[in-house]
Amino acid sequence: NKRVKVKELLASEATGQEVIVMGWVRGFRNNQFIAVNDGSTNNNIQVVVELGMLDEETLKRITQSASIKATGTLIPSQGKGQKVEVKASAIEILGDCDPEKYPLQLKNRPSLEYLREIAHLRFRTNTFGAVFRVRHALAFAIHKFYNEKGFVYMHTPVVTASDAEGAGEMFRVTTLPFDNPPRNEDGTINFKEDFFGRSTNLTVSGQLEGELAAMAFSEIYTFGPTFRAENSNTARHLAEFWMIEPEMAFYDIEDNMNLAEEFIKYLIRYVMENNREDLEFLAQRLAEEEKQLPQDKRSEMGLIEKLEFVMNNSFERITYTEAIDILLNSPAYKKKKFQYEVKWGIDMQSEHERYLVEKHFKKPVIVTGYPKDIKSFYMRLNDDGKTVAAMDILAPGIGEIVGGSQREERLDKLTERMKEMNVPADEMWWYLDTRRFGSVPHAGFGLGFERMVLFVTGMTNIRDVIPFPRTPKNAEF
Ligand code: 4AD
Ligand code: MG
User: Fold this and answer.
1) Which stretches make up the Aminoacyl-transfer RNA synthetases class-II family profile domain (predicted)?
2) Span(s) in the chain for CATH 3.30.930.10
3) Which of 57, 80, 313, 474 has the least CB density, counted as fewest CB within 10 Å?
4) Percent of the chain having pLDDT more than 90?
5) Rg of the chain taking only CA atoms, in angstroms
């Protein structure tokens, strides 16, 4: 099979060599010029058929999204905007596509909302072609980054009995029969008889298992799907999302911040160097989308400019207490522009986070030293007894993109926090064992993969950066 991918063809020297192209028809002009795409790039290869070469019947079957195999020779193109084209010697229709029934009409510029309803076909658009190639590149760069640093990739379980975040946002996993589940005396379902005789759920985070591995390999990372049963219908939340969670022994909160910043910059640099064409396409798309917005809602920088800026400037680092002071002294606060209350102790809302990054600092911000009461039990208590060694990274246009902390490595302090927060210490004996047997200072964080893809692609809805979004009422395929 001499099939050559379109991207490779477009970069080839045309010397009349024989080639085979297979792909989907993106356009057909003058019964002569077929634009073929195979997903390797947004650019199409032009396949030229000589007039009279194909019969009427075949010509009619060359419709948008029909799949074809074209055999021919690669020659320099006369047309503008393309270096090469395929002069066809044979065209074979592999699969017809009835234009009357096909729901994706590219000519009419389908909206992103409409494309979400036909998510099975949206891969065939330029926007989603670019988004998912960039998503792929980011996934690859994640492994490359940690591999170069000698981190071990750890697979953590999807089904687990623990609630890593202690936030109770879990999807239950059960083997109980739906129609006749075992019941307690009061008639309620006896979930104790779930999986292996105990209640299980889909993981909300691989962190706790990651910590176990870091206590032997020193530096590990996880990269897998995580699940949150939060019923939030926002442009930033999914019920199923992917998370990268590095966990490092012998790191303190400072080392943790440094790694997270280096990691984010590395990912941006990787796609800037390897996915330039797709990023430029997405930058153009974003610019056009923003033209519809009122002036004050538009970004100050284009996508490429923004990525360059983030890559080349240090993130701002402030404490939670400083963040609250900035908010309290902001014109937005004085003009009562915030919907939610601002005072020390609040869990900052996205309007607050976005004020800090978009209006005040105009760059990514790392916030440390959060009040202990709004953070998870495993975060290390600071000497003030009020705050923990937490760090969140806030990104322009996104809000929280990373959440992490130095972990509480002192057994007595940890068990005390667990008691205060009603985390069942007896069920977590395995986690506490790491603090009993050779405990060390350690730290880690979680980067929300889709939020990173949003940031890099300039897309604005998280449903548009994961192939099959799981959101409330959205699980058909
Ligand atoms: O802040 P979170 O909940 O932190 C953890 O899960 C820790 N165990 C991480 C760690 O220290 N190892 O989540 C981490 C990140 C968030 O900053 C956000 O980017 C993303 O995961 N995230 C979501 N992304 C999409 N949809 C959701 N529902 C998300 N919830 C969190
Ligand atoms: Mg968080």
Assistant:
1) 132-467
2) 124-169+204-464
3) 80
4) 86
5) 27
The answer to whether 239 and 422 have CB atoms below 8 angstroms apart is: no
Which residue, judged by its Cα, is nearest atom 9 of ligand 1? 446
Q: What residues have CB less than 8 Å from 109, skipping those under 6 apart?
A: none
Give the pairing of strands 387-395 and 219-227.
Answer: unpaired
Specify the domain boundaries for CATH 2.40.50.140 within the chain. 6-102
How far is the centre of ligand 1, averaged over its atoms, from the C-alpha of 402 (Å)? Answer: 7
Residue 401 Cα, ligand 2 centroid: separation in angstroms?
8
In angstroms, the CA 18 to CA 24 distance is: 20
The residue contributing the CA closest to ligand 1 atom 7 is 446
pLDDT computed for residue 473 by the predictor: 73
Mutation test of ligand 1: which of 211, 212, 241, 392 has the most ligand atoms closer than 8 Å to its C-beta?
A: 241
Which run of H or of E encompasses 126?
A: helix 126-148
Of the chain, the end-to-end C-alpha distance in Å amounts to 33
The pTM assigned to this predicted structure is 0.95
pLDDT at 120 over 80: yes
How remote is the CA of residue 112 from the centroid of ligand 2, in Å?
28
Q: In whole angstroms, give the CA distance from residue 42 to residue 40.
A: 7
Q: What is the arithmetic mean of pLDDT over 42-61?
A: 96
| H-run or E-run covering 451 | helix 449-457
Q: Which CATH architecture has domain 124-169+204-464?
A: 2-Layer Sandwich (3.30)
Here the tokens at position 158 are: 């999807």
Strands (E), 274-375: 316-319, 365-371
Record the tokens describing residue 55, joined without a space. 């019969």
ipTM confidence score = 0.99
Q: Measured from the CA of 451, which atom of ligand 1 is nearest?
A: 19
Query: Domain 6-102: which topology?
Result: OB fold (Dihydrolipoamide Acetyltransferase, E2P) (2.40.50)
E-state strands within 296-411 = 316-319, 365-371, 387-395, 399-406
Q: Does residue 385 have a pLDDT over 70?
A: yes
pLDDT value at residue 95: 98
Give residue ranges with CB within 6 A of ligand 1. Answer: 164-165, 205, 207, 228, 230, 237-238, 241, 243, 245, 400-405, 444-446, 448, 450-451
